[in-house]
């Protein structure tokens, strides 16, 4: 069989390969893995936000028929590593946040486990807790770094002097809420030790990275990584929450060791996910912009305050996009944390960039208003020639193209800049714009293997598809690199038995895994030429990124908001995004990612907010009935477009990440559109009618 050079597979609009099995319900998710004799686990959670467990009465639970084990801090095995305190479950009597696991019940049926868990009686020595984030706290501190390894603070020039001398300035505070990722598939794990209770641990886990989960669990249990296997062919969404293992994985493994020879299943309930599976920290952003009368920025600054958990630090890189977005000789960014008695925050779609672009992009709109300048033009006038801070040239930067293309498609030229002058019946109508950006990331460790098996070629890599289209796009990249029809390429992913792969996070999947696949294909062709024999095989590793260039994707988001003049209700009738994200591997899956990100950004703008009761430390709207996520009825017209972009520096495919940039500018664009509709500037997300209504003009008593 020869390897002729086929037409390019990259760029084809192909349906998702995993689509049929998901639609038909035959795709096997972690919790559904067929295993005989499974037991079921249910956690017992702390009902206080801080303190110590003084009593654990498990007698009634243990006496219940069908219960096979009850584990507490007194009976659970000692873990080999407790450095990650989020994962150090059932190791002592301390309670660090409400909802922390203080015991687990294992039973023959999930209903029995849940009932027995309710029978466990827990006594506490309760201590005073603190869960309130405020920018004026005296105990704020600067972390050593912000996620993943950025400097905490940066400074260039003299921002204070530039602000004092600026012809026009903006100095405002913006707030984003606490958000929970809420994927449709809950965090779920099945664990099995073979031989019974020792030896080899297999985990079927809903994860964005099988190899990173294996590394973490091997460390926790003191095992060689070769003694741990993690399997995850399908993921029902993650949005970052499944990028790092949470306590459910450790609990399942602990319980499985305690019931020798039996697999143990654990699926968190929706309510449990609000305290055990991560969330996005709320932020307080003090933004300062100074400009000359012509709109040239002379000062840019953002000071961010956010929260973290006392037991495990996570510092979101909220101020990082401000460091490179626009040109200015004077710049400053800072991050300060409040360590509180709350669960550990974590990654959520576009960490840093998503909340971090809200304040600055609304501030840019406010600056344009004060200058009497079009907000699209203001952004264009402040395009940097090189990346601010590093001084590196951009591998490509097409923000201006996105702004202009988006403005043309949206009909921006017909916009009256005055707020509150356009009306359709009882609805005030406005339009807004915001820019978006996301870095091009390539992880340092991934390997792919390509093998000929009969009439097809198989690419193996331990990657994950959390709904992004990896099953399909990796096949296209493989086919393109080999020069064969994509129909003759099979892909195997989602298992640590396959070569090591980085986590699916930071919009780095295709950049990293695709690069490894291309290297494997090059090695394959170099070794076997155009006539590879049966069983021919070659591997390739991801290469280093080109450090000479600053690499980012860019976009422009346009929104049309309608505000009801009497009720303050907000409806977003149109969203339009234009992106410059390198070479698009598959237009169908790309559009899905862009539209999904924009929809999630709309949800952030209008609906989502986790309400933390300071009296109890408890998120009170901890289900999908009270934590409203944008639904079909909330979404009207959404369009996603992209510019053709050739960037030979980013990777062999010329691609940039697309999974996260869609969410980044959306909330700011919606906020700006609401202001333009009714003249009310909402700087505190979400934009709910109670924030709009008091500022709307009221009709006179006689009218």
Based on DSSP secondary structure assignment, what is the total number of beta strands?
A: 26
Sequence stretches where pLDDT stays below 50 over 5 or more residues: 699-703
- CATH hierarchy class name of the largest domain: Alpha Beta
What about the largest sheet? 7 strands, mixed
**By helix and strand content, what is the structural category?**
alpha+beta
CATH A-level architecture of the largest domain:
2-Layer Sandwich
Fourth-tier CATH superfamily name of the largest domain: Aldehyde oxidase/xanthine dehydrogenase, molybdopterin binding domain
Query: Main sheet: which strands, in order across?
Result: 3-5-1-12-9-10-11
Shape field: globular
Please report the number of helical segments. Answer: 17
Strand fraction equals: 15-25%
CATH topology of the largest domain: Aldehyde Oxidoreductase, domain 4
Helix content range: 10-25%
Query: How far is the N terminus from the C terminus?
Result: 84 Å
Average predicted local confidence, pLDDT:
96
Domain count, please report it: 4
Summary tags:
703 residues; alpha+beta; Aldehyde Oxidoreductase, domain 4; 7-stranded mixed beta sheet; 24% helix
Explained architecture:
With 703 residues, this protein is α+β, with helices and mostly antiparallel strands. It folds into four domains: 19-28 and 451-541, Aldehyde Oxidoreductase, domain 4, CATH 3.30.365.10; 33-128 and 182-276, Aldehyde Oxidoreductase, domain 4 (2-Layer Sandwich), CATH 3.30.365; 130-165 and 288-390, Aldehyde Oxidoreductase, domain 4, CATH 3.30.365; 392-442 and 549-703, Aldehyde Oxidoreductase, domain 4, CATH 3.30.365. The protein has 17 helices and 26 strands. β9 (188-194) and β10 form a beta hairpin. The chain is globular. The N and C termini lie far apart (84 Å).
């Amino acid at each position: 069989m020869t390897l002729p050079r086929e037409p390019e597979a990259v760029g084809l609009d192909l349906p998702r390969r995993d689509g049929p099995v998901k639609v038909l319900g035959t795709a096997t998710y972690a919790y559904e893995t067929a295993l005989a004799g499974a037991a079921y686990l249910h956690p017992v959670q702390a009902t206080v936000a801080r303190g110590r467990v003084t009593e654990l009465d498990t007698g009634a639970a243990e006496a219940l028929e069908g219960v096979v084990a009850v584990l507490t801090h007194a009976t659970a095995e000692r873990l080999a590593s407790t450095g990650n305190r989020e994962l150090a479950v059932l190791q002592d009597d301390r309670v660090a946040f409400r909802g922390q696991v203080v015991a687990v019940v294992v039973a023959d049926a999930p209903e029995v486990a849940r009932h027995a868990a309710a029978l466990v009686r827990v006594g506490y020595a309760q201590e005073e807790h603190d869960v309130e984030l405020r920018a004026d706290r005296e105990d704020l501190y600067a972390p050593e770094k912000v996620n993943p390894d950025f400097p905490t603070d940066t400074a260039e020039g003299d921002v204070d002097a530039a602000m004092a001398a600026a012809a026009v300035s903006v100095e405002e505070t913006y707030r984003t809420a606490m958000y929970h990722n809420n994927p449709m598939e809950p965090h779920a794990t099945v664990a099995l030790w073979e031989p019974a209770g020792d030896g080899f641990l297999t985990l079927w886990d809903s994860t964005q990275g099988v190899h990173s989960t294996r590394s973490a669990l091997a460390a926790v249990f003191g095992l060689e990584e070769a003694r741990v296997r993690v399997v995850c062919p399908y993921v029902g969404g993650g949005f970052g929450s499944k990028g790092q293992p949470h306590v459910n994985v450790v609990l399942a493994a602990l319980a499985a060791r305690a019931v020798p020879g039996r697999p143990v299943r654990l699926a968190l309930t929706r309510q449990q996910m609000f305290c055990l599976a991560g969330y996005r920290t709320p932020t307080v952003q003090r933004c300062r912009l100074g400009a000359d009368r012509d709109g040239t920025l002379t000062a840019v600054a953002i000071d961010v305050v956010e929260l973290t958990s006392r037991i495990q630090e996570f510092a979101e890189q909220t101020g990082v996009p401000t460091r490179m977005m626009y040109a200015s000789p004077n710049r400053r960014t800072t991050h300060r944390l409040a360590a509180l008695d709350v669960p550990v925050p974590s990654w959520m779609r576009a960490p840093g960039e998503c909340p971090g672009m809200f304040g600055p992009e609304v501030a840019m709109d406010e600056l344009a208003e004060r200058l009497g300048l079009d907000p699209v033009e203001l952004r264009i006038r402040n395009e940097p020639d090189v990346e601010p801070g590093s001084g590196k040239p951009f591998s490509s930067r097409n923000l201006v193209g996105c702004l202009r293309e988006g403005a043309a498609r949206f009909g921006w030229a017909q916009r009256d800049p005055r707020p509150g002058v356009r009306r359709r019946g009882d609805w005030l109508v406005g339009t807004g714009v915001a820019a978006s950006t996301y870095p091009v990331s390539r992880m340092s460790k991934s390997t792919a293997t390509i093998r000929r098996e009969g009439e097809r070629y198989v690419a193996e890599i331990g990657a994950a598809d959390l709904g992004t289209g990896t099953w399909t796009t990796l096949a296209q990249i493989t086919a393109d690199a080999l020069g064969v029809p994509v129909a003759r390429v099979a892909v195997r992913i989602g298992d640590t038995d396959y070569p090591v792969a980085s986590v699916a996070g930071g919009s780095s999947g295709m950049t990293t895994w695709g690069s490894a696949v291309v290297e494997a294909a090059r090695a394959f062709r170099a070794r076997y030429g155009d006539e590879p024999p049966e069983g021919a095989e070659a591997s390739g590793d991801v290469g280093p990124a080109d450090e000479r260039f600053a690499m980012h994707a860019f976009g422009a988001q346009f929104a049309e908001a309608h505000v009801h003049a009497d009720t303050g209700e907000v409806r977003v009738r149109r969203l339009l995004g234009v992106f410059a994200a390198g070479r698009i591997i598959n237009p169908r899956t790309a559009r899905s990612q862009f539209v999904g990100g924009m929809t999630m950004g709309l949800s952030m703008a209008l609906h989502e907010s986790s309400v933390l009761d300071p009296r109890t430390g408890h998120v009170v709207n901890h289900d999908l009935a009270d934590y409203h996520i944008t639904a079909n009825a909330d979404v009207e017209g959404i369009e996603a477009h992209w510019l053709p972009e050739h960037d030979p520096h980013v990777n062999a495919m010329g691609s940039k990440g697309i999974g996260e940039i869609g969410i980044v500018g959306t909330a700011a664009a919606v906020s700006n559109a609401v202001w333009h509709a009714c003249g009310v500037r909402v700087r505190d997300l979400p934009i709910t009618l109670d924030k709009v209504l008091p500022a709307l003009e009221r009709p006179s008593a006689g009218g």
